[in-house]
Amino acid sequence: MGGLGGQLEADRLAAVRRYDVLDSPPDGAFDRITALAARLLTVPIALVSIVDTDRIWFKSRYGLQVEQIAREPGLCASAVLQEQPWLVSNARNDPRTLTNPLVAGEFGLQFYAAVPLRTHDGHNLGTLCVIDREPREVSDAEVATLRDLAAMVMDELELRLAAMRTVRLESELRHGAEGVAQTLQAGLLPPHLPDLPGLDLAARYHVANREQVGGDFYDVIRCHVGAALVVGDVCGKGAEAAALAAEARWSLRTATLDAWTPAQALDQLNRVIIAADETAGRYCTVALAHVSSTPSGNVHLLMSLGGHPHPLVVRRDGSVERVGRTSPIVGWFPDASYEQTDVTLSPGECIVLFTDGMFEAVGGHGTGDDDKVRALLSSTAGLSAQAVADRIDDALRAAALCEGRLRDDAAFLVVKAAE
Amino acid sequence: MTADLTSSVSVVRDERGTRIIVAGELDIATAPKLLDATQTAARDGVTGRIVVDLSPVTFIDSSGLGALLRCQRCARQAGRDFMLATPLPHRVARVLDISGVRTAFDYTNQ
User: How confident is the model at residue A74 (pLDDT cuts 50, 70, 90)?
Assistant: First the structure.
């Protein structure tokens, strides 16, 4: 019906897109309004129409079977072009409509009253309209009723738009937070493992929940004796835990580069955390080992465990040994002292340092025994560090499948004395 | 988390003080409840010791251990004796051992 082009129509169509209502499934809220309109105005047909580029689509239709009609002959398309109700009492006598196929044709429309569905920023999305096949007059009171019902339709559309925005916003926030957590976590992991003569290394890290960063960390630091291996776990989760993990990692790096022994480094970290916040109650567990290869091909480790699960050594014959001596968690007891023990690996033997997340997942949640972990590692005797790590990964994946997901982050480091 | 369905923290008063009983999984979901219960007991003006009974605990992780340590600190700051009830379940004893904190707690079998 002319005048459809131009910026105004483009803006109107943008508004229609914004409400994202076209082709949406039937909705009881709108159906109740059209039923009410038909009853209050005593007409057989009432519609909520949305005027699209080239069609008129009915969000709700009372007394009509078709879902949409072409825009061209549409009366609603005319109705959206104005602010006021569009009223046709006797379409066959009305110059605006007498040639309209809906009027002249089989459908036989005689009465049409439409109120535009107007957005708060002044765009008409479509109409609430009532239709009859008999000519009839419409009173001011009926027009007022129709306006009220149209306002209700708009309220429903606004409500849905607000809900969509909330969902979108939440999802954006969630992705944003996830990004922060992942950035923090990325800062906790070494980008790649150094190449160390006589040593075969592999490290893996599994995140249980992408939306909640855990406090596991690991590191391999080149140092005066060869390298320092670190696997740690911070009490708690989230950004706070990630921050402490980063502090712990850097403190251990500094201590290692200063040629401190593992026990000295843990003692230092203990004091650093306590001094930083005596009241916050943060602590971590750490396995720290200096590793060096000897001319004989043996690998020697000097290891200190600050409240951390004992690493496991896989001997050449497949036997599995718990190594290390327990010292207290790091960052809680001002008077804690840290012991260190020696471990020797013959060529072909390996040691696995891990967090309790790995132990729990592979061992079975809450069982508290290490039979499964030992059996798994025993079967890896003779494999390369990467292959051992792959086996542990497989077990973690199986556990995650079994439980639906990993319950906790899991980190581990495999060090093998080259053969 | 399933812990919410299976875990609980309950408080019993007796002539010696307050007994806090933790059942199920003592993890990140249960830890705040234990801490709340201890803080309330330490603050309430009720005198006597605070005993945490972990015998119905089936699982404890680092968050749970962290809560026990914080409870101990909170009770001591309020001038109250803080003890764990013995015997400890195997699972809890193991975690205390690995963490090197077994000797940091006082114990009572009553």
Answer: confident
